[in-house]
Write a structure and sequence with these properties.
114 residues, mainly alpha, KRAB
């Protein structure tokens, strides 16, 4: 069982007040480099994304949008990353631009060498 002890009287003669310089917080060092969205973004491969359940995807979306919002509020976001636009539109964090053909040399129609 813990006991709470408090003092109502003045400090005794052998106890001194803390030095005022000691009470003042040290000023933090200035940031030397700007933080970017890439510094705080969490990227997943397409395979990793497909293995995530909807709750995990929602959590990722919420965290990425909050990170971006924090950077904007600090004036550190220059432009909106594609990932943020895709998440805001309800899509995954990236878009597949094109599918890669599995054939080493796709057949050509009407080419010179039929």
């Amino acid at each position: 069982m813990a006991a709470v002890v408090s003092s109502v009287g003045p400090l005794g003669p052998d106890v001194s007040q803390p030095d005022e310089d000691y009470l003042q917080a040290e000023e933090p060092e200035l940031v030397k480099e700007s933080l970017t969205f890439k510094d705080v973004a969490i990227d997943f491969t397409l395979e990793e994304w497909r293995l995530m359940d909807p709750t995990q995807r929602d959590l990722h979306k919420d965290v990425m949008l909050e990170n971006y919002s924090n950077l904007v509020s600090l004036g550190l976001a220059v432009s909106k990353p594609d990932m943020i636009s895709h998440l805001e539109d309800g899509k995954g964090p990236w878009v597949i631009v094109r599918e890669i053909s599995r054939a080493p040399y796709p057949e050509t129609k009407g080419g010179c060498c039929d």
